[in-house]
Design goal:
The complex is a heterodimer of chains A (501) and B (324). Chain A is α+β, with helices and mostly antiparallel strands. Among the domains of chain A are: 123 residues, 2-Layer Sandwich (Beta Polymerase, domain 2), CATH 3.30.460.80; 222 residues, Cytochrome-c3 Hydrogenase, chain B (Orthogonal Bundle), CATH 1.10.645. Chain A is 40% helix and 17% strand. Chain B is an all-alpha fold and 324 residues long. Helices cover 70% and strands 0% of the residues of chain B. In chain B, α2 runs antiparallel to α9 and α9 packs across α10. The radius of gyration of chain B is 20 Å and the shape is globular. Classes of the chains: A alpha+beta (501), B mainly alpha (324).
Chain lengths: 501, 324
């Protein structure tokens, strides 16, 4: 049973550039590119392009040897995926404009070692300088560079931002991430689906429920497993609770970054209450370990349902106050409006997803485009704003808190009876693969999972929304001053660990 | 006027009282802000503890640093001390009262800023240069207001020293309100205008919201803090203490404009001290209030705010020349 409608196409590498162009013309956008070392099956590497659109997901698979045709020129969003494949598989994308190493740093990694190949022997190359990474330079009188990170002031993850400035205005921003590559995809290979679940949950902790849902969509589809209605309902409730606490935190940080601590602190207090609710429901503040293959790990009794109901009503009340606060304060609006604008065209070319896409006027919401679990039961409409600035992203988060509240409210007292988890046999067709997707608070989380002939994972590829959206910040800051960068960054609120797994 | 040993002793007492109180005022504002947001807040004496800790810490200097980095923290700190030696916070005869020229005060402030920005650039970090350029952006814009404020006070009272200026206003006000003598020196408009103008300059010079955010950890948004990002140990301690002193300088001048009451002899000192502390607490509450209810402005909106301050001081100047 395929839960997501995937149309499979097999294509020759050389012809694909043209089809990619046509695909874009037909309104489809790139969801991701997944490569796999399938030399043990058919002595070739497999590259799969996933394009999304309103009538489902199209998969184009290409068999290649050591190189393949780059589609970056017609589809700029492919740039990062192709660099990633070049690093981890050593397959050369011909015609790629920028083949600098992405995640394996030439400063300490031998670029002829490709960890995702099956013949990689798990050894780490000697720690020494193998090459150099060249940053783009802006030259001219009075132009200087400001380097930020990878170590930041504050407890955040590592990322390097290199600004070229002429006074305050930003002429160019170049980001370099992937400082703590964990190799989760490689580690998952050879593990069974349940073992990998714990690793998947740690890809990006604050979105772990939604990411896990995406993984389970793929896995349960491989296992031909149908979970109970009750488990589906509980998964959706958890997913929306996670969305709410993420958005509450994001809005709070927007206030914090414009130096307005008064409303920020009250939202932080609200976030704390939401996390306490999480803990009382599942035993963990971040909802870790709530889901399992075949269902969920805990049940909702009437007292828990009541607690959720009280909490979401409280959230709605507080967020209404907060919304009035933003709209009625000219000084707050002055900071948010026209800051960090990402044009619709840029958003399209970079295949953005989630809040960042919707704030720029692209109606992309996986809950609506590729419905999973029970999302097709709600008549959801993508919340859209056109301006693409910090204000739009903040306002959308507030809007979507109401949507999530409504979804939870609809489900709470209509929970179907039944088991919360079903037993399953860990047996699959050999080399069967499936895709899963879900809408995390940051955007579409996409999983491609392939089983081996033993019910274990042969290849797992995860594409985090942050991986897609990070490059867009380089365009969002143009025309802004450097003092507004932290605010723009916070309005996108991307994950470093999801980006670099 | 003959000065005797009593003037010296009370001058010294006044000087050390203000210096010792300075971190308290900064801590009090911080505490107020935190309580207003529903946080438990820091210890009100936390900044004394921090200073003590920083004094014990090692100084780390960049390998590109020159002797400027060695001397700048002391020059900055001493500049503020010199100003505090001149201010008649609650005792009319401050130690450097005879040379407390208003222009000297204004440019001692500028001297401190100059050396702080030299320090910022001397260490060769990109943030330092950015912070220095922003600091001057603010200082250049607020300097005219500051000068106009002091000059209009001088013209208005026909005195050059800050001790004399405020004593003149104090006497005039006392005559008008207590004895009913109608004095030319009493005008509500000029002090009122000057107070608002100085308040705006004070907010900008002391890196408070809405101009700068003293609590942020985001280097890219900093004004004042970006200058001292590289400072450590005793140097950082001196810069931090210097910023408390600067705040106290501005608050003290504001308090004098608001309600000048200086002791002229030993018997008035207790009352004058209490009045001084009360005024300072009121001003702290005022600053905290502004910081609580407003977000930080866009960088390039700050000139609008400072031009308001400039216009107010200009009007005050015109009024004082016309002799209200």
């Amino acid at each position: 049973m395929d839960k997501i409608l995937i149309n499979k196409h097999i294509i020759e590498s050389n012809a694909f550039v043209n089809s990619a162009d046509n695909l874009k013309g037909s309104g489809k956008y790139l969801l991701g590119i997944a490569a796999a070392d399938e030399r043990s099956l058919n002595s070739k590497f497999g590259i799969r392009y996933f394009f999304g659109g309103n009538n489902g997901i199209d998969e184009y698979s290409v068999k290649v040897d050591e190189s393949f045709q780059s589609i970056s020129k017609v589809c700029p969003a492919a740039k990062m995926y192709e660099r990633e494949i070049y690093d981890l598989f050593g397959l050369t994308p011909d015609g790629h404009p920028d083949l600098r190493p992405l995640m394996l740093y030439p400063e300490n990694w031998n670029s002829s070692v490709h960890p995702l190949r099956k013949d990689y022997n798990n050894s780490i190359p000697e720690m020494k300088r193998y090459g150099e990474y060249k940053f783009k330079k802006v030259l001219g009188e009075g132009i200087f560079e400001v380097l930020v990170g990878p170590v930041h002031a504050g407890i955040i993850e590592p990322g390097h931002f290199r600004f070229s400035l002429a006074g305050e205005p930003v002429l160019q921003l170049e980001i370099r991430h992937f400082w703590k590559h964990r190799g989760i995809e490689k580690v998952c290979e050879g593990k069974d689906f349940k073992e990998a679940l714990d690793l998947v949950a740690k890809i990006s902790g604050d979105n772990n429920v939604n990411i896990t849902i995406s993984y389970l969509e793929a896995v349960e589809s491989i296992l031909n497993l149908e979970i109970t209605e009750r488990a589906k309902y509980i998964r959706v409730i958890l997913a929306e609770l996670e969305r709410i606490w993420n958005y509450v935190r994001d809005v709070a940080w927007i206030f914090m970054d414009i130096g307005f601590a008064l409303p920020a602190q009250s939202l932080f207090a609200l976030q704390e209450e939401l996390m306490k609710l999480n803990k009382s429901l599942t035993g963990h503040r971040f909802l870790f370990n709530a889901l399992t293959v075949g269902g969920v790990n805990f049940n909702l009794d009437s007292s828990k349902l009541k607690a959720i109901d009280n909490m979401i009503n409280k959230v709605e009340k507080n967020i209404k106050e907060c919304e009035a606060f933003i709209v009625n304060s000219s000084t707050v609006l002055d900071r948010l409006e026209f800051t960090g604008k990402i044009n619709k065209k840029t958003a399209e070319e970079l295949s953005l997803c989630g809040i960042s896409a919707r704030a720029s006027g692209l109606p992309r919401d996986s809950r609506i485009e590729f419905p999973y679990l029970i999302y097709d039961k709600f008549d959801l409409k993508p919340a859209l704003l056109e301006s693409g600035d910090v204000f739009a992203r903040t306002a959308l988060r507030i809007k979507e808190i109401y949507v999530s509240k409504k979804i939870i409210g609809d489900l709470l007292f209509n929970l179907p009876e039944g088991d919360i988890a079903v037993a399953y046999e860990n047996r699959t067709e050999a080399y069967k693969y499936a895709a899963g997707n879900s809408e995390t608070p940051r955007g579409n989380a996409f999983f491609y999972v392939m089983a081996d002939n033993d019910g274990k994972i042969f290849r797992l590829k995860y594409i985090d929304p942050s991986f897609r959206i990070w490059p867009s910040i380089q365009y969002g800051v143009l025309g802004n001053i450097i003092a507004d960068f932290p605010l723009i960054n916070k309005s996108l609120n991307l994950s470093y660990s999801g980006n670099d797994m | 006027m003959n000065y005797n040993i009593g003037h010296l002793i009370f001058g010294i007492i006044q000087f050390f009282t203000i210096i010792l109180l300075a971190p308290f005022f900064a801590g009090f504002i911080h505490k107020l802000k935190q309580r207003a947001r529903g946080q438990k807040g820091i210890n009100i004496f936390q900044f004394y503890i921090n200073f003590n800790k920083l004094l014990k810490k090692e100084i780390v200097l960049s390998k590109d640093a020159t002797f400027i980095s060695e001397i700048a923290p002391y020059i900055v700190f001493v500049s503020y001390l010199v100003i505090l030696l001149m201010l008649p916070a609650f005792y009319r005869y401050s130690l450097l009262g005879v040379s407390s020229d208003v222009i000297l005060i204004a440019y001692s402030l500028a001297l401190a800023t100059f050396f702080m920005t030299l320090y910022a650039m001397d260490q060769g970090s990109a943030f330092g240069g950015l912070g220095a350029s922003r600091e001057w952006f603010l200082t250049v814009l607020s300097e005219p207001s500051l000068i106009f404020i002091f000059i209009s006070l001088a013209i208005y009272t026909k005195q050059g020293r800050i001790t004399d200026i405020f004593y003149f206003i104090q006497k005039g006000a006392a005559n008008a309100f207590l004895l009913g003598v109608n004095s030319d020196a009493v005008s509500i408009a000029i002090p009122f205008l000057l107070f608002i103008s100085l308040f705006i300059v004070g907010i900008s010079e002391n890196a408070r919201i809405p101009v700068d955010n003293p609590e942020t950890h985001l280097e890219l948004t900093m004004f004042h803090e970006a200058n001292i990002l590289e400072a450590s140990g005793k140097h950082l301690g001196l810069f931090e203490y210097g910023s408390y002193l600067k705040l106290t300088v501005f608050l003290t001048v504001m308090s004098l404009i608001l309600f000048p009451y200086m002791a002229v002899n030993i018997y008035q000192i207790p009352l004058a001290l209490i009045v001084y502390i009360l005024k300072m607490i009121i001003l702290c509450i005022l600053i905290a209030g502004v910081e609580i209810v407003s977000p930080k402005m866009r960088v390039f909106r700050v000139p609008n705010l400072l031009s308001v301050s400039f216009m107010l001081s200009l009007i005050a100047m015109i009024l004082s020349i016309r002799g209200f």
